[in-house]
Backbone:
């Protein structure tokens, strides 16, 4: 009986996080906590959160495993659905913090900045702006992953 | 008994055909592997999307989107996915028969049907039946793009919004494994609530950021895109698998035919030799 209760407690303390990109399953497991940047600002999700739907542009999904380990997945373009027992992140592209190529991100940041320097009249201005925010978010992801001690 | 020469030319022609079918088998096998990969890549996204849609269909939404409201059914729309090329066994015909059965069932209840056809085989087949064809797309190739499909799908959605159709289904061959492809008819809209899910059927609604209409519209259009795309790639993998199996059967049949013909040829040849011998011997006896 006590064991069952223990197990139930354990279940109450975790929430199922699922991150799916257009190409594959990135992550699917129980976690203790999830932090996401939605379009309207940061959201911290604990088990038992009310149902919520929001857009995601480019963001880092930071999750804490039940053992207290912090990890993150860098995602781009999609939606986030929260149910009391599950979180679903459906995005166009997603990459784990550990797998990001830092030099590639720096390079694309430089290119985007060079395009932006031409001024707002340039045709790919908005594309370059999006590119820059994407590169910056990746670099931020690299930094955070390093802080969590996974690089 | 045919002469040895005719039999030999027949063997030659069967062997030529066999070469073609075995080449087609190998091409289909390699294409199938690619198509299967493509299908498996997009499967998780689609299934996660279906789960999400199942949740949304269970919620009591403050914003009543037309896709979530069930109307009395007077007209059903079908998106029928078929192949562009033939020589793939009974794949298309089985699928079409399934749809026709359902259409005639509906017809007996006074429900009309309209179709959107993807793939030239469906275009050829359904033009004979006088169904209302809303759109058709052919020549999708081996790597279908969402952009090519979306026009036809959008027409169906517009018809749904205008009330011309009250239910939209997608019809395609689901790839189970290389030997088995099952024709399926799946309802796209109105959305079907997720039966076996942990989400309770209570009176709850989402918190929306920024707002319900914008979010739901985006999610629904993504949902429909991914379901249709998944149907098309599954059908493509099924096509290649079916073609591979059909061509393997054809190659085996040709092999058997060649064996039989070889026997006939040998007999004819032997009969010829015997005849010549008899002629020579009887000629010698006469001298």
Residues:
């Amino acid at each position: 009986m006590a064991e069952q209760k223990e197990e139930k407690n354990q279940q109450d303390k975790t929430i199922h996080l699922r991150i799916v990109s257009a190409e594959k399953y990135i992550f699917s497991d129980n976690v203790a906590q999830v932090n996401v940047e939605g379009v309207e600002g940061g959201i911290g999700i604990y088990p038992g959160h009310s149902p919520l739907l929001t857009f995601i542009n480019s963001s880092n999904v930071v999750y804490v495993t039940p053992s207290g380990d912090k990890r993150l997945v860098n995602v781009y373009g999609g939606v986030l659905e929260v149910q009391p027992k599950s979180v679903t992140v459906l995005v166009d592209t997603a990459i784990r913090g550990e797998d990001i190529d830092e030099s590639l991100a720096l390079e694309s940041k430089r290119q985007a900045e060079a395009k932006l320097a031409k001024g707002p009249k340039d045709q790919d201005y908005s594309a370059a702006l999006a590119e820059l925010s994407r590169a910056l978010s990746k670099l931020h992801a690299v930094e955070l992953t390093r802080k969590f001690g996974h690089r | 008994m045919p002469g040895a020469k005719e039999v030999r030319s027949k063997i030659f022609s069967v062997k030529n055909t066999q070469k073609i079918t075995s080449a087609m088998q190998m091409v289909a096998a390699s294409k199938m592997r690619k198509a299967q990969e493509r299908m498996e890549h997009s499967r998780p996204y689609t299934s996660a999307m279906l789960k999400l849609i199942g949740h949304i269909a269970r919620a009591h939404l403050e914003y009543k989107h037309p896709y979530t409201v069930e109307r009395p059914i007077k007209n059903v729309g079908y998106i029928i996915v078929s192949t562009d090329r033939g020589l793939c066994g009974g794949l298309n015909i089985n699928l079409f028969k399934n749809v026709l059965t359902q259409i005639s069932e509906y017809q007996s209840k006074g429900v009309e049907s309209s179709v959107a056809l993807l793939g030239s085989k469906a275009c050829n087949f359904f033009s004979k039946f006088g169904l209302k064809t809303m759109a058709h797309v052919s020549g999708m190739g081996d790597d279908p793009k969402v952009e090519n499909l979306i026009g036809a799908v959008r027409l169906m959605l517009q018809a749904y919004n205008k009330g011309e159709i009250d239910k939209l289904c997608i019809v395609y061959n689901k790839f189970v494994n290389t030997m088995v492809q099952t024709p399926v008819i799946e309802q796209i809209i109105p959305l079907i609530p997720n039966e076996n899910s942990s989400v309770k059927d209570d009176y709850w609604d989402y918190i929306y950021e920024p707002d319900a209409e914008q979010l739901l519209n985006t999610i629904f259009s993504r949902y429909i895109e991914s379901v249709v795309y998944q149907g098309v790639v599954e059908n493509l993998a099924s096509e290649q698998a079916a073609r591979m199996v059909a061509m393997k059967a054809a190659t085996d049949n040709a092999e058997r035919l060649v064996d039989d013909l070889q026997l006939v040829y040998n007999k004819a040849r032997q009969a010829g030799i015997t005849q010549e011998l008899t002629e020579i011997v009887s000629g010698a006896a006469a001298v």
